[in-house]
UniProtKB/TrEMBL annotation:
Domain of life: Bacteria
Entry-linked Pfam families: DUF1433
Region (Disordered): 119-139
Protein's UniProt name: DUF1433 domain-containing protein
Protein keywords: Membrane, Transmembrane, Transmembrane helix
Feature: compositional bias, Basic and acidic residues: 124-139
Transmembrane portions of the chain: 6-25
Length: 139
């Protein structure tokens, strides 16, 4: 074989390796994005549950809307949103490493939203609320 054929074969093998690597990385990226969507959807459900079950008056919070889902500088999830179609009734919720990156009640809320929620010592975490709901369904 002459040198030209060797270079062509090496070039083809290199191209195949590059294409295979790109496909592999694309599949991994898509998988990670899919997991991210599932994670944020789960956190949105936890936040909605927390807000709707920790109000002073039942059924005060009719809807919860999420505006921003991002990763904070310390690796925690920062989720922003508002309630009842009123963007002034906003909140910022955190899913921190202390709670295994699950929303556990860490939240900064607007003054109006703070008025709707129970006092801090009466607030229940999403896990406590889920346990209570499971007990009610079980009986």
């Amino acid at each position: 074989m002459n040198k030209k054929h060797v270079f062509v074969i090496i070039g083809v093998i290199l191209c195949i390796c590059i294409v295979a690597s790109v496909i592999y990385l694309k599949v991994k990226y898509d998988e990670k994005e899919k997991q991210k969507v599932i994670y944020y959807k789960e956190q949105q459900e936890r936040i909605t549950l927390y807000l709707q079950h920790n109000t002073k008056e039942p059924n005060t919070i009719k809807s919860v809307h999420f505006t921003s889902l991002k990763r904070g500088p310390m690796g925690d999830a920062v989720i922003e949103g508002y309630i009842n179609e009123n963007k002034k009734d906003n909140f910022t919720a955190y899913a921190t490493p202390e709670h295994n990156y699950q929303f556990g009640g860490a939240m900064i809320e607007s003054e109006r939203l703070s008025e709707l929620l129970k006092p801090a010592h009466q607030l229940k975490s999403p896990d406590e609320i889920k346990e209570e709901l499971d007990k009610k369904e079980g009986h």
